[in-house]
Amino acid sequence: MMSNQGTYAKAAIASAGVIGGAYAAYQLYKELQKPSLPEEWTQVGTLKNIYAYPIKSCGPIVLNTAECSLLGLKNGWLRDRVLMVVDDKNNFITGRAYPELLLVEPSITNSILTLKHRDMEPVSVNLAEVIALQPQKTATVWSVSVPVHDCGWEAAEWFSRLLDKSTTNYRLVYYASQNSRNLRSTTNKIYKFTKNDTGALPDEVPFNLINEASVEELNGRLKDCQVTHRNFRANFVLDGAKAFQEDQWKFVKIGDNIFEIIKPCTRCVMTTIDPETGVRHTKAEPLETLKSYRQIEDPEVRKTAGNSPRMGIQMALRSGGGGLVSLNDPIYVA
User: Fold this and answer.
1) Residue 188's CATH number
2) Which run of H or of E encompasses 133?
3) Which parts pass through the membrane (predicted)?
4) Buried-most residue among 63, 92, 211, 270 (CB within 10 A)?
5) Model pTM?
6) Distance of CA 124 to CAs 19, 152, 154, Å?
7) What confidence tens digit (pLDDT) does each residue in 144-203 have?
């Protein structure tokens, strides 16, 4: 007769086998969900510019080299779109309604974030102290709740004076998490988003690329103004490709980093604000011209995109974090 100990051992082994099999099946499932990465690449140009936008809707920091993480570009404490300004209900605000934000010039030295504006005295925030001393709270971006730390009264007063809205207390908040936020509920299911593709606080994805030739082609159509790639607030500027060649690509490789193109970047009124002056174009250019010839044709996509035209591509990292990108890196596509 088998002892109780032997019975328990066999049961444990059987249970372990079931659990182990389930785990193996789950791991296989996860692998099958990953996109098959290309083995052959074609060079289309070089990396002309690298920009990080640490504060949502504010000005960029120009970089010569940067690390690619799942949340976006980073360089030490500098991370792309991990700060944002919120109103007194902790809802995010952007340059769409507050174009003055585009003229805020951020810089980061070690953990010290410094904010400058032509009409304001500079103010600094120690992000390390923000994490250590400020309790975590919840803010909202695109109807998604995100964990943030408040950057303190000095930054709050600075932004409140800048925006000149005395009835509202605007605050700067910091997303310290290393994990992507939840996906927007309005995201079109036709796109291949994974739970790691939303980044920290960007509108949709962690990486955005603009083709310089596409900007030049657009300028050839504009009558009342000219724009630059800065109007489109991309992380990467590609030089050397043909105009709108990016419409045909599925993957992009820069350095050792492989990005999957998740969707075209649909454009809004942010493109109509001059990044040098913060003034909105009176005829809503270049948006109106883009609408005339850069519409998305897929009826399923148009259910959420509407008449928003496409310009540039939105990408997510598929090669794992830690790879570097540098100016003049060759850019390959597949």
Assistant:
1) 2.40.33.20
2) helix 127-133
3) none
4) 211
5) 0.88
6) 52, 10, 8
7) 999 999 999 999 999 999 998 666 799 999 999 999 998 776 666 778 788 889 999 999
